[in-house]
């Protein structure tokens, strides 16, 4: 199975190298491969040069003029060739089994997988509340929304999710929603038009 990891980046020369390195460090089965696609979204710092060096020969760096993470994600999708398209924010750290846990859920029937998005809080209680929200509240949210609106719902964290190429094609690619509501729109569209969306505590990312 081939995985394309799309990393939108705007002025992230401090973080993009570590994000790409974390993707290169993924533990893969022999039959799997990864390409990394960094999408420079109008950066005004050294993001593009840093990304080109970090990506090397296992991917590419492309440019998207239209501002906004979903426009950058769509550009990365159009440039990708993987069976599964993974989206990761450029200031995130992921465990070395991130891809393998995504693959496991896809093999079990999910068309898309997302997971907790942990922020780095300096105050202990804020960190605890963030972990509680990401690990307990978010997985329960689709069930609550279905009860309230009697329609399928799903939770997608825009900076930490993966989707099969077939499912993303079914919804016409990444919707051009800017910032607020972008990941909610993706989750609902996938759940209603493509299939099962899984929220897995093992597919986590920690952001700066």
Short structural summary:
The protein has 208 residues and is of the alpha/beta class. The chain is 40% helix and 22% strand.
Characterization of the model:
This protein is of the alpha/beta class. Helices cover 40% and strands 22% of the residues. The chain has 7 helices and 10 strands. It has helices at 16-24, 47-55, 69-79, 98-107, 124-149, 165-170, 182-193; strands at 2-9, 33-40, 59-63, 84-88, 92-93, 112-114, 117-119, 160-164, 197-199, 205-207. It has a 7-stranded mixed sheet, sandwiched between helices. The chain has a 3-stranded mixed sheet with strand order 5-10-7. α2 (47-55) links the parallel β2 (33-40) and β3. The chain starts with a strand and ends with a strand. The model has no long low-confidence stretch (mean pLDDT 88).
Protein topology:
Elements: E1 2-9, H1 16-24, E2 33-40, H2 47-55, E3 59-63, H3 69-79, E4 84-88, E5 92-93, H4 98-107, E6 112-114, E7 117-119, H5 124-149, E8 160-164, H6 165-170, H7 182-193, E9 197-199, E10 205-207
Parallel strand pairs: 1-2, 1-4, 2-3, 6-9, 7-10
Antiparallel strand pairs: 4-8, 5-10, 6-8
Helix pairs in contact: 1-2
Distance N terminus to C terminus? Answer: 30 Å
Mean pLDDT over the full residue set: 88
Largest sheet: 7 strands, mixed
Shape: globular
Stretches where pLDDT falls below 50 for ≥5 residues? none
Biggest sheet: strand arrangement: 3-2-1-4-8-6-9
Radius of gyration: 16 Å
The percent range for strand residues is: 15-25%
Q: What's the tally of helices?
A: 7
The count of strands amounts to 10
Order of helices and strands: EHEHEHEEHEEHEHHEE
Q: What structural class results from the helix and strand content?
A: alpha/beta
